[in-house]
């Protein structure tokens, strides 16, 4: 062997040793799983492998008819990897039995469902949940949802939805956690942990993070629309919550409908392989959204065979409903448009998920009928929902301390949502027990007993136009009944109630399906017929509390100027009426803070706190100055800023104390304030930390949330609240997409919302 060959061998040995040292050793359990799946794959035909990549919707199969259903033959033939939209232990067990007893390979199925904000026990919509700023509450809501769903046979949820959105016109803003990447990341982690736990017990289910990626930035706020942004913005402002969910161990990811960089996400190798797997180290499987593969045809990416191959090549593993994989991959394999290794890899990931769930050891692990009887919609779960719901409410206004209400006299309860069983839950409440929802009227009755009198009037429909109202409401909710009286007659009845009342509680806003999928709008005000009612009520001179149901930030300029008290309750869920009564009467002090900015009008959209400065910024507090970045007709200010929310008590903040004005790389400093409850009630305050990087290699936002703590204080009590700031808190993705902290000067803010803050400064050396 000559010297050159010896050198090559030596270098090869060095490289192999280095690789062995850096490669994570396989645990005994993982080795056992790999052996099992390797043996299984070796026995499977190509058709059976492709079958594992197929996720059809079953429809809700009638009990006793599973074996004769249309889907049964495909399951027997090994053409189905999982099903969704089927619930109930008896039904799921019957279908699982077909897979594990009547198919050749006896591979169990996954059973997925859109368990978005609870199962039978429904929690606030995710946007409302995010306003708790309480990660224990968020995680607890996901834990209860997983317990209840798994007790009904479901082992996979298409949640959490972590899309950042800064456009309230987009209907699906209701399903996410608002506008901020940091807050959204904390919530994403909490939800994944709540659903999955350690993926060992029979009440822990697979999470599916969606919609990857950038779905919340659809142009014009129009659902399914194009998304186009720089990679710097993607990495800094929109991708962090997806990555946080992956870091928390999310088992699956769902591709989004929109395009990214000119390629539909479902077919984007950059998204699904380069970022998700290579950069973030994701080890789970990727599923499309509903018909996501065939929809690429309309995007202009080719015929069904072409787009199916595109998706597999990109790194998609499972085809929801489209059946493009099932119908074309074998042909594409023969034509060398895809490889056997790609099919094997995708199949392996699906089988791994089933193995980790314990389905190979016990296919009926999630089919315990006794659990369903005891653990679903239990009093304990409903109590948790009640507490979490009350914590999500945001008090937007409370002039003259109208709230909390006294339990005396006569209360006029008026509005289309005052006694509305079907609209307490919000969108994606697929397992809600509508006949058991607690309406606002019922909640007030439960709280008052005989202590005060309640008079009621509907006052208005949701919308004046019956055809339009059907589009908004009845398409999804056939239980809703419209009042056939004229607007004038309904207002007249409401005014009679108001005249006899000491205080008016006006329960208004949106219906459950005003937001959600395919529910985008261009008008984000309270519907005009309801506003007409509110204006007439205001003329009576009676004190008015507006209890507002909504799934998006609304433009409430008139309401804010004319109504003394506004409580935003989002869609609270199963215990809506009880939790609303808890807050109205002061049993619970509201502590919710906005996770989205509320604009003055739709023309300001998109409006968000972490914006960039222009070269001609408008001075803070000013409205108009020529040749500055502003509007002629309205100020740049939001109606309610990000992080905003009032309390029945008041809080004061001391000046900020820094442990040092200099932060050295690799070290940390602390920032502290003394928070004091200066009011009459015990209450919770979300103390928020923001940082601004004053000079960067790329332009930086005027503020970025970097920490928060929810603090409970008794009346008169004080507490020092301390944050640690390290170099890591100052990092961002630069123009080369490197995650760096750049030395220089920083501003640091601590306060009650993104606008009302104390300020100091420090330097990173």
UniProtKB/TrEMBL annotation:
It comes from the Bacteria. Gene3D superfamilies: Glycoside hydrolase family 3 C-terminal domain, Glycoside hydrolase, family 3, N-terminal domain, Immunoglobulins. It catalyses: Hydrolysis of terminal, non-reducing beta-D-glucosyl residues with release of beta-D-glucose. GO terms for biological process: glucan catabolic process. Residues 1-20 form the signal peptide. It is an enzyme of class 3 (hydrolase). GO terms for cellular component: periplasmic space. Its EC number is 3.2.1.21. It is found in: Periplasm. One of its GO terms (molecular function) is beta-glucosidase activity. The keyword Transmembrane helix does not apply. Pfam families: Fn3-like, Glyco_hydro_3, Glyco_hydro_3_C. Keywords: Glycosidase, Hydrolase, Periplasm, Signal. Belongs to the glycosyl hydrolase 3 family. This is Periplasmic beta-glucosidase. It comes from Pedobacter paludis.
